[in-house]
Amino acid sequence: MKRSLVAILILVGTLLAAAAASASTIRAYIAEFTVSPSDNGNLKSTLQRLLATRLAGDGIVTVDTPAEADVIVSGSYTTFGKMFSLDAIAKSTGGKQLSTAFEQGESMDVLIPAVGKISGKLKGDLVKQVQPTATALPVLPAAPVESPFKAPRADIERPAAQESAKAAASEIVRNEATPGWISQRLSGVYSAVTTWGTKEFVSADDKGIHLYRPGAKLDLVTEIILPDRMKVLALDAMGPEANGRVLVFVTIMDRETIASRIYALQNDSFKLVAEEVPYMFRTIAPYGGAKKLYAQQMGRTEDFYGDVYEASIVDKGVKLSNPIKMPRFANIFNFNLFRDQSGKSYLTAFSDSGYLLVYSDTGEELWRSSDKFGGSETYFQRRDWENERTNMTPFRTRFLEQRITVTEKGEVLVPQNSGFFVLGNMRSYSKYSVVNFTWNGSSLEEKWRTKQSQNYLADYAYNPATKELTLLEVAQKGTFGGKGGSVVRLLGIE
């Protein structure tokens, strides 16, 4: 009985300590920074991430949404010639100002220390002023009555069901060196890639689009530099046609509107076919068949408006046909179609949180993964006054998702990015695998996955003829004064 009493006292002490720790925790939401006169290398999200990591600790935790927070912290970065000013303000969820802090400097070398000083000032003020929401102490159940008799260990038999069983070979993740071809390091952070059945590919970064040809090394053949105000969201290609021409579809965000471009690639040069096209494009091989081009509009208030249509190029314009109604969460960038063995059709997509979903042909959700898949750092922003009232930033951020590929066997290929920092609008993935699923009639079942790479997968393409993946990896993120680096990997999966 003494040992039981001691155990209960230890349990009570542990629960009291946990409750006290929970009660003293301040939950802070870090809003995305505003940058003036213009953002340079995603500085707004970088500063948001830096402040969040430095503010966390000593009784403060960061949360994903303002609804979970006790405190909302917003900040701004402003440059005047060679000088910069870094400002931050912390408010309660009711709008009461709790703390302000600012730092100035003359170079990027002192920016990170300035973030540290600001976080220290905010942290000190918040700990003094904020009364966090207390966590209720759980009710302890009555202490169990100690059994008067305990069987000797030798008398306890292990049921047969608990005996160790050897795992099937297909369930073992193999760790051999990943085969395939790897390019040399490319300077800069690339975000999109597209192929069309040959070894050549087009990729995109924050400057424009670039045609590369693999050989002993990766050779840059030609490129198109886009205006600074334009951001490439996605790249897709169709062809080659009988005359060797490849059509390249560049989904572009020009300030806050879609202004896509279509190029004809022939004889190692890009020729502009159409510009300021108000559609977002994606090439998909539905049901593992022939690749088709799809298009979707962006609305005034909706980021993805209406149905997804099959698209074709007619007289330098876009003709739409055969609409596909998108169920909840699905949009042009994150869906595909597959069939089961009986020929029944399903739509698969990612949710906003990264869960893999399967819908019936009537739009009913049939299955949702327990783990998160996909994961992308590519995003666009649009002005949102409602978001400004709730999150203290005038823009809402919308992340694109990874491609979902359906093979000719009806299998579903999806990437799985994971990382050390994924919080709200702050994403920094650091490793990935590509996972193969098969539909067993009630759920998607994992068949195999590639060896995990210690890089972020920005985009990929699948060549059904050669059974190869073209994987665009970011090996080093862009930092203050650094361009970052990317690599391209060709990986055979059969």
Q: Would you give an account of this structure?
A:
Keywords: Signal. Residues 1-23 form the signal peptide. It comes from Geomonas oryzisoli. This is VCBS repeat-containing protein. The chain has helices at 2-23, 43-55, 111-129, 385-391; strands at residues 26-30, 34-36, 60-62, 71-80, 83-92, 97-105, 181-182, 186-187, 192-194, 201-204, 208-214, 218-225, 230-238, 246-254, 257-258, 260-266, 269-277, 280-284, 292-297, 305-314, 317-324, 335-339, 345-350, 355-359, 365-372, 379-383, 395-399, 405-406, 412-423, 426-439, 444-449, 456-463, 468-476, 485-492. It is mainly beta and 494 residues long. The strands form eight sheets. Strands 1, 2, 3, 4, 5 and 6 form a six-stranded mixed sheet that branches. It is globular. The N and C termini lie far apart (63 Å). Residues 14-23 and 134-178 have low confidence and may be disordered.
